[in-house]
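quick q for whoever's on today - can somebody do inverse folding on this one?? i tried earlier but teh output was garbage lol. tokens:
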């Protein structure tokens, strides 16, 4: 069973990411999130901030059992694509809120679990390594 999850999201979808994080916490999971105070919709994030935040966030991915990716309309974003690849390389469970439009990301997804169904489904996903289709 999954005990910790990192929520991955473009800053465009932080409202939905926060709702997902709240739902996951209510299930008793440890939840890591992006730095919502660095929402690029509201603040300018410089290169040095982005470098620091990227390393900080990848450490969260490494600590978790799974990542939950917010993909509104199938869009994930460049940074989120990197995070998904990193999670997959570390054999983390990769969940998405919607099917990603990017085929390379879609190939790494273990399950699509809409935000509205997190409570019903996320705890049923086994942490054991899975056979993935190449």
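ok took a stab at it. sequence:
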């Amino acid at each position: 069973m999954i005990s910790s999850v990192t929520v991955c999201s473009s800053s465009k979808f932080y409202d939905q990411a926060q709702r997902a994080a709240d739902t996951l916490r209510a299930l008793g999971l440890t939840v890591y999130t992006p730095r919502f105070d660095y929402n690029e919709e509201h603040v300018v994030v410089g290169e040095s901030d982005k470098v620091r935040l990227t390393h900080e966030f990848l450490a969260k991915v490494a600590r978790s059992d799974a990542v939950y990716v917010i993909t509104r309309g199938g869009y994930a974003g460049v940074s989120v694509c990197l995070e998904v690849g990193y999670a997959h390389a570390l054999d983390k469970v990769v969940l998405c809120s919607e099917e990603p439009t990017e085929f390379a990301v879609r190939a790494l997804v273990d399950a699509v679990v809409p935000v509205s169904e997190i409570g019903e489904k996320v705890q049923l996903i086994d942490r054991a390594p899975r056979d993935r289709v190449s």
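fwiw The chain has one domain: 4-124. also The longest strand covers residues 4-8. so keep that in mind when u check it
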